[in-house]
Each structure stands twice: as C-alpha cells, then as structure tokens.
Design goal:
about 450 residues; mainly alpha
Length: about 450
C-alpha cells in the first residue's frame, strides 16, 4: 500500500511541475509576443514611409489580426490571476491556449516580415536591376542581325511549316527588347514619384521581357542542331520502317496488319524528296507513329495466332455454366439463411458482382478473353460458395438424430430436426447432382 501511495504522490508532483513550467512558458510567450508587436509596428511604419501602403498591406493586416487574438491571450492571463479561484484543469487549459496564440502570432509575423524584407530589398536594388536589364537588352540586341541571317539561311533548306517556330523570332525579340527598355524607364520614373508598387511591376515586366527575348534568340541557334538530329533520326526510322514492311509479309495477315502496313508505306511515300525543302520534325513524328502502329499490329497478330480468340459460343457456354452454378448456390443459401456464415455469402456476392460485368465484354475482341476468364471466375466463386454453405449447414445440424424416439410420430423438436437431416441429405444430393449435370452439358 505504501508503494502505491508513494507512486501516486510522485505522479502528482510531476504533474504539478509540468503545470508550473507551462505557466512560466505562457507568461514568457505573452511578454515576447507583446514586444514583437511593438517592434513589428515600428518596422511597418518605416516600410510604409519607404514603400507606401499598398506594398505593406499584408503586414498591416497581419498586425491587426495578431492584436485581436493576443487580446484573447491577455484576457486569459487576467483570469488566471483574478480573485476567483480556478481549478488545475482550468489553469492548464488557459495557459496552453496562451502559448498556442503567442506561437501563432510569432509565426505569422515572421512570415509577413520576411515577405516584406524581400520587397524592401527588391525596391532598394531597383537601380541595380534596371541597369542590368539595360545591359542585357543591349547584348541581346547585338545578336538579332545574326539570328535573322540564320533564319534566312535555314529557310532555304527547311519548309515553311518547319520554320514556323522561329521564322519571326528576330522581329519578336526586337519588340520585346524595346518593351523591356521602356519598362525600365517607366520603373525609374515611378520610383522617383514614390509609386513603388507601379515601379516594381514595371521592373518585373521588363525583366521578363528580356528573359523571353533571350530564349527566342537561343531557340534560333538551337533550331539547326535540332533539325540535323531529326534528319539523322529520320534516316534511321526510314530504314527500320522498310525492314518492318518486309517483316509484315511473313506475319499473320490480319486486317490490322494490312492496314498498318499500308499506312506506313504511305508515310514513306509522303517524305519530301532528297534535296528539297522539308520538315524533318513533322515527318519524323508521322513516320514514327506509323512505324509503331505496324509493330503493335504485328505483335498482336502473332499473339493471336498463338492464342486464338475464344468464340462467342465458347464464352457463352462458360457463362451458362456459371449461371447454373450461381443459381444452385443462390438457392441453397436462400433456403438456409440462418445457417450460412459470412464466407459463403461473400463468395456468392463477389460472383454476382463479377457476373454483371461479363455481357459488356462479349462483343469486343479486345475484352472477350477477359469475359471468358470472368465467367470461369464466377463459376469458381459460386462453387466455393456452395461448398462453404454446405459445410455451414452440416456443422449447424444436431448430431446423432435417429428415426425413433421423438421421431416422425412424436412431433418433437428433435424428431423434426432428424427429419431435417434426411431432407438436408436429399437436398445436398440434388445440389451435387445439378452441378455434375452442368459439368457434362
């Protein structure tokens, strides 16, 4: 007994120490949050003077929200120290809430002041960024004549459809660079007028315009390399396609193989003659698609030759057999509902669920094998349900019930159950007979 009370006292002392620590944390968190509000308010005032109200609105809204919720924390702290006595649970709940509110306030102010610091840094770096935008625009502008010369040279080799992706890159890059320079000017003017939000927006659009212009000029230089790679790959695909057409003559001659072969031959004939302007990208895509289609058609034909498609009559016969077994199992379970366990019922329910989906799989050749497999699975599940149901019935019957005693003449419960045993055996024989008959149909 002494050991029990000693352990109980130690647990109470440990809990009291935890409560005291929580109370100290609550007071410290409340003081720190209050100080954080004061310092953040000063930061906001300086930021509003430099950036204006629009760029500092998020932090201002966060401060208002924090002040509102910390009002609740101060009220809870006041309740902890008023003249009304509180229970230990009440003090613990209030202190935990105070800590939660203060941590939330600190995290929110950290997030918003971090965002504002990035904005302030961007505004303060605006002159540096504007200068960089102008230098980048000037460097890219010097590449425009070379890009136009490259486009003109490539236009004599590749078709208009191939050149469409870079044909106007020179003009578009020139327009983007002009827009970037104008945006830099606008940003400077807005910054001088202390319209920092508009200045930032103009600077961001100028930076993005320079980036897009550079990407366009890079695409012109990359186009020739990409086109040469496409031509090299196209030559390999042409050779492979001709080999596939020759192999298709030895494959099973199904309508799909014949159609895919004809489409691949048409794609080969549609290739631009050597020495003429062509579009290697489009030709490669079309030829590769036709080549893949023929490969798939041959693979399917070869698989079908080795694995003949089951006929509709074959699948229907399997489905009829499944229906017969389902009917037998359903009838036995319905006639002995009180005796049948979950295993048999689960098998029957799964078989009936699968049976619903089979008719939709019959017409299409792609799903006929699945229909046959599903029909066989239905039959298997129905057979398992029947066996499990018969097991449940056998195990539920009272044992050693004879014909005498309280038998047929007595009309007692035991005699009735004995008659049920005989009838159950007869019914079981009929069930098994129906299954065997179905097997040999």
């Amino acid at each position: 007994m002494a050991g029990f009370w000693g352990r109980r006292r130690r647990e109470e002392e440990a809990l009291a120490a935890q409560d005291a620590d929580l109370a100290r944390r609550a007071e410290q968190a409340l003081v720190a949050a209050d100080e954080r509000i004061r310092t953040t308010s000063d930061e906001l005032a300086f930021a509003q003077a430099e950036l204006g109200d629009s760029l500092t609105a998020d932090l201002a809204n966060a401060l208002r929200s924090v002040r509102t919720h910390l009002g609740e924390a101060f009220q809870l702290h006041q309740l902890n120290h008023d003249e009304i006595p509180d229970t230990v649970d009440e003090l613990r709940t209030r202190n935990a809430r105070i800590v939660q509110l203060c941590e939330w306030a600190e995290n929110l102010l950290d997030e918003k002041t971090g965002d504002l610091a990035e904005t302030v840094a961007k505004v303060r770096r605006a002159p540096e960024i504007i200068a960089q935008v102008r230098r980048d625009a000037e460097a890219l502008a010097s590449r425009i004549p070379q890009a136009r010369s490259t486009i003109e040279r490539l236009s004599s080799r590749y078709s208009d459809t191939a050149m469409r992706r870079i044909a106007s890159s020179g003009e578009e890059a020139e327009q983007l660079l002009a827009f970037a320079t104008h945006g830099a000017d606008v940003s400077e003017r807005r910054r001088a007028a202390r319209q920092n939000e508009e200045a930032n927006l103009a600077l961001e659009t100028a930076t993005e315009a320079v980036r897009r212009a550079g990407a366009m000029l890079d695409a012109v230089e990359d186009f020739e390399i990409q086109a040469l790679r496409a031509e090299s790959t196209l030559a390999d695909v042409v050779a492979d396609s001709r080999g596939d057409i020759a192999a298709a003559r030895n494959a099973p001659q199904t309508p799909e193989v014949a159609r895919a072969t004809a489409e691949l031959e048409s794609a080969l004939l549609a290739l631009a003659p050597s020495g003429t302007r062509n579009d290697p990208f489009t030709e490669l895509t079309q030829l590769r698609s036709a080549n893949t289609a023929l490969d798939e058609a041959i693979a399917k034909a070869q698989y079908r030759a080795q694995n003949p498609l089951p006929s509709l009559e074959h699948v229907q016969h399997a489905l009829d057999d499944a229906d017969r077994q389902l009917g037998v199992a359903r009838g036995l379970i319905a006639g002995h509902r009180g005796w049948i366990g979950a295993d048999a019922r689960t098998r029957l329910a799964e078989a009936e669920r699968l049976r619903i989906d089979v008719p939709a799989m019959l017409p299409a050749e792609e799903t006929r094998e699945q229909a046959l497999s599903s029909a066989r699975r239905v039959a298997q599940l129905a057979s398992e349900a029947l066996q499990l149901a018969q097991r449940d019935i056998d195990s539920s019957r009272p044992q050693n019930q004879g014909w005498g005693g309280d038998g047929w003449g007595g009309g007692g419960r035991r005699g009735g159950m004995g008659g049920g045993d005989v009838m159950g055996g007869v019914l079981g024989g009929l069930v098994i007979g129906s299954i065997l008959d179905g097997i040999f149909d």
